[in-house]
Structure formats: structure tokens, C-alpha cells
Amino acid sequence: MKSGIKFLILIFMSGLLMSGCYYDNEEELYPAPDDCDTTAVSFATDVQPIINDNCISCHSGNTPSGNLRLENYSQISANANNIYSRISLPVTDVNHMPPGIQLDDCIILKIKTWLDNGTPDNKK
Questions:
Q1: What CA–CA distance (Å, rounded) separates 1 from 77?
Q2: What's the pLDDT tens digit per position in 30-81?
Q3: Ramachandran region, residue 105 (left: φ > 0; alpha: ψ -120 to 50; beta: rest)
Q4: Residue ranges of the domains in the chain?
Q5: How many Å apart are CA 97 and CA 50, to the nearest integer?
């Protein structure tokens, strides 16, 4: 009987030890979309069209939402961190932008790449 209990304890302990060997790899957990090219993200070609398609309807004109205009490079680059943090939130978060819409992973990755590169105003 004692050997049976020792065997069960050994199996249980082995299971605990093995479960501690799990290793999270960010690239495996959150892979970049296969067709998302971020090698040459530019403001004119990538970022401005994203803003125009998803933000400009609310963030332009005489009374922009949140008193935030995103009509040109200087306005967009000055708010790049805020833009990225808002589009990265879960769609259910009250601060998520655009409201009720989850942007494609590639769009978010392009904004992040542009931000990580220092928000250049490259004309490509």
C-alpha cells in the first residue's frame, strides 16, 4: 500500500514539474499576419491612409471629437502614442478607438512600426 501511495505522489510531483516547463514565445503566441509587410512603413503610404479610413471622420473639422484633430502629419505624429494605445485596447474598453471596431492586426502593427521608427515623415 505504501508503494502505491509513493507511486501516486511521484506521478503527481512529476506532473507539477513538467507543467512548470511551459515557455511562452511572443512570436508564436501573437504571430504577425503573413501578408503584413512592415519593412518600409511610411507616413504617406501607410499611416495617413489608415487614419483617413478609420479616424478622420470624427477627428477633423471645426469640432473634432475629443478636440483632437488628425488631419495632417504634425497632428498625427504628436498623438502617435495615444493613437497606438487606443487602437490596441480591447474593443470592449471604453477608451478603444475607433468605437466598436477592431482594426486589423496588420493596421495596428503598421502604426506600431511607424511609432517605433520615430514617426518619420518619409515621402514614399
A1: 72
A2: 565 568 999 999 999 999 999 999 999 999 999 999 999 999 999 999 999 9
A3: alpha
A4: 33-116
A5: 13
